[in-house]
Amino acid sequence: MKKRTYTFHDARLRSLPLRLLNLLGSGAQKAGLRLPDLSAQAVLDEALRRTGLSDTGAADFREALASYTHSAEHDADLNTLGRLAVRNMLVNALANRLQVVDWVKRHPELQRETIHQPWVVVGLPRTGTSLLSILLGLDPECRPLLQWETARPMPPADLAGAGEDVRIAAYAGDVKRLMRLNPTLAAMHPFGSLLAEECTAVFMYALRTIGMETIAFVPGYGEWLARADMKPAYAMHKQVLQALQNALPTERWVLKSPNHLWSLDSLVATYPDARIVWTHRDPGAVVASLASLNNAMQLPFTRRHDPRRVADYWADKLNDGISRASAFDSARPAGWCQHVHYDDLLADPIAAVESIYRSFGATPSPLHRRRMAAWLQKRPQDVAGRHVYDVRDFGWTQAALQQRYRDYRQRYAIRSAF
Q1: Which of 71, 149, 277, 331 could form a disulfide with 220 if both were Cys (CB 3.0 to 4.6 A apart)?
Q2: Cα distance between residue 177 and residue 9, in whole Å
Q3: In angstroms, what CA-CA distances link 198 with 72, 153, 258, 265?
Q4: What is the dihedral of CA 134, 137, 143, 149, to 10 degrees?
């Protein structure tokens, strides 16, 4: 059966009740009412009320919250549904923060939990990071962060109840509702309770992540984030790993996120023995996909539809991430991380993993190899449909993209995708 194809245009809001909600909300805004309230204090008050907790930990999140809410109010042109979505995202992030702070405070033994040589896959989106992290996570001694446990991390699931935790089904219900609202996303990004999650989901508890820029167009916050210290986000990240690992032990974590490219200094400072793998692919083949994804994410939540503006913003952001990471790479000794090319990974995934292990003085176990072979034989392809996009959707040309990222491609000997 032929798979359905999706573009970002398919993300337009089609639900009649939600369109009526936006219409009513638009009338209220014209009357001077901005509902729901996106002020920083209102969002924090709701998180405090929902959790019944009061200790927010270090105050560093407050500047991030103020920056984001201001940008959402003044830059994003949110409709009523968008205001609800942004408020819910922020309240959930702060509620998780409150619960993590409370759990760590009540369990001081967590400070002795060592995060030993975690695998950390960095690299731009669409460069094979998901495939590589899945293969690394098939090592019986490793485990990834899971989507359900980053959505509702506390209390940590333990060995006795992890398989039947009610939060797994609750998150699956959340995903089902999201897919009904925006089925386009299923073809663009993998969603599922038991699928690996990116580190951005945990950085959200500190309100410092590019992931918060995907739901709404918030360039003001993006400018703040580019200057912000990421150490508070990594400190929170480590506390979460310690709590989860204490309850459900693992020898090694498998982590991934493009967000790390912007903050490799903080990553290395937090996890100095991390096994870091940087995946590479022609950005010209990546940036249009990411531009399409972010347009699809934001389209149901805004009254303004300007695909070129969103696309250009993310093209600039990727360029900044590449520049920062390349500068950090230049200042580090050879071998501090391993570089993997997308084409090589796809040509022979198991050989690529074996090469990565060797570079860190290790060898995949026979069981790990068998698991990788079994997964590769049965892995799904375009189950939810196929994401299609074109550079011309955003007023770009392939030649211009090749020129823009030429230095990066030459530095890392990346094959042109065009």
Answers
A1: 71
A2: 20
A3: 23, 14, 9, 18
A4: 0
Domain ranges of the chain: 5-411
Q: Count CB-CB contacts under 10 A for residue 79.
A: 23
Phi and psi of 28, rounded to 5°? -65, -40
156 preceded by a cis bond (ω within 30 of 0): no
Residue at 75: amino acid letter? D
Instruction: Locate 297 and state its tokens.
Output: 């994410």
Is residue 296 a contact partner of residue 391, using CB atoms and an 8 Å limit? no
* Chain centroid, CA 367 distance in Å: 29
Give the distance, in angstroms, between the CA of residue 27 and the centroid of all CA atoms in the same chain. Answer: 34
Fold of 5-411: Rossmann fold (3.40.50)
Q: Which residue's entry shows tokens 């797994």?
A: 168
Q: Are 131 and 357 in contact (CB under 8 A)?
A: no
Residues 309, 218: Cα–Cα separation, whole Å: 12
Q: Which of 245, 204, 199, 211 shows the shortest CA–CA distance to 104?
A: 245
In this structure, are residues 301 and 78 in contact, taking their beta carbons and an 8 Å threshold?
yes
pLDDT of residue 330: 92
Q: Are 97 and 61 in contact (CB under 8 A)?
A: yes
0.90 surpassed by pTM: no
DSSP E strands, 262-337: 275-280
| Closest by CA position to 288, among listed 311, 310, 254 | 311
Nearest to residue 79, comparing CAs of 23, 123, 7? 23
Q: Report the pLDDT value the prediction gives residue 182, as an integer from 0 to 100.
A: 65
Measured CA to CA, the distance from residue 378 to residue 373 in angstroms comes to 9
Q: Which residues pair with 59 in a beta bridge?
A: none
Write out residues in the chain with pLDDT < 50, as ranges.
1, 383-385
CA angle 334, 335, 340 (to 5 degrees): 115
- Quote the crossing angle between the two packed helices 61-74 and 219-227, to the nearest 10°: 150
Q: Which residues contact 68 (CB under 8 A, 6 or more apart)?
A: 90, 207, 212, 218, 221
Q: Provide DSSP, 138-168.
A: TSTTEEE-BHHHHHS-SSPP-TTTGGG-HHH
